[in-house]
UniProtKB/TrEMBL annotation:
Keywords recorded for this protein, A-Z: Cytoplasm, Phosphate transport, Transport
Cited Gene3D superfamilies: Phosphate transport system protein phou homolog 2, domain 2
Domain PhoU, residue spans: 26-112, 130-213
UniProt-recorded name of the protein: Phosphate-specific transport system accessory protein PhoU
CC per GO annotation: cytoplasm
InterPro entries named in the record: PhoU (IPR028366), PhoU-like_sf (IPR038078), PhoU_dom (IPR026022)
Family (UniProt): Belongs to the PhoU family.
Species of provenance: Cognaticolwellia beringensis
Primary location recorded for the protein, binned into one broad class: cytoplasm
GO biological processes: intracellular phosphate ion homeostasis; negative regulation of phosphate metabolic process; phosphate ion transport
Subcellular location: Cytoplasm
Source species, domain of life: Bacteria
General function of this protein: Plays a role in the regulation of phosphate uptake.
Length: 230
């Protein structure tokens, strides 16, 4: 929290506003992490009830995004933040958008649990679960970097997305092979492909959040630069 420099404001109320909004983002991050964990568990255990719970709980994340967005708007209107304070508020607004999208992707993964996959194709779900567990670890590291506003950690996490991309591409090749060998399986395999694609996108959105952390801490936009230039 030291990097946030919250304690330097003359207005105690401004400090409280910033601390409250950061706590709300951390709570939202916890909700998103729980949704992804439950979605992956539902796939691994073929737990349809848990999958339905993931889908029905998506509104919690949506509500959190709207509430935090309203708080940020109120802070900008009332406090007119500048420099680091403004970067922090903008980083939060962008982060909650990506967190909400990650929640949507968790719903797509839960949907595959509700598909009627045959015994043969259920083996694919274990590979999907492996990729998912790595993405979950990636998300947890991203949220940890955000909580500490640690730009060094954000750079390390950002670079590790390459591993997820390689694992995703390997899984896609495997799925393509299944479809070529048995065209009748295409509809079922497609649901697994969409879930794998959702996991790959979660990795991309975690990268976005890492870029927001770097933007806040260093005051430098790295959205269209290579990690070597961070």
């Amino acid at each position: 929290m030291d990097n946030l420099n919250i304690g330097r404001h003359i207005s105690g109320q401004f400090n409280e506003d910033l601390e409250r909004i950061i706590n709300h983002v951390m709570h939202m991050g916890g909700l998103v992490e729980k949704q992804l964990t439950d979605a992956l568990t539902s796939v691994c255990d073929a737990d349809e009830e848990l999958a339905k719970k993931v889908l029905s709980n998506d509104y919690l994340i949506n509500n959190a995004e709207v509430s935090i967005d309203d708080e940020c708007t109120r802070i900008i209107a009332k406090r007119q933040p500048a420099a680091g304070d403004l970067r922090l508020v903008m980083a939060i607004v962008k982060t909650i958008t990506d967190l909400e999208r990650i929640g949507d992707e968790a719903g797509k993964i839960a949907n595959v649990t509700l598909e009627s996959l045959s015994g043969k194709h259920k083996d694919l779900l274990s590979n999907l679960d492996n990729l998912g567990r790595h993405v979950l670890t990636f998300l947890q590291a991203t949220l940890d970097a955000f909580t500490r506003m640690d730009s060094d950690a954000a750079v390390i996490v950002h670079k590790s997305d390459d591993k997820i991309d390689r694992e995703y591409e390997a899984l896609m090749r495997q799925l393509m092979t299944y479809m070529m060998e048995d065209p009748r399986s295409i509809p079922q395999i497609m649901s697994v492909i969409w879930s794998a694609r959702a996991l790959e996108r979660i990795g991309d959105r975690c990268q976005n959040i890492c870029e927001y952390i770097i933007y806040f801490v260093k005051g430098k936009s790295v959205r269209h630069t290579t990690p070597e230039d961070f």
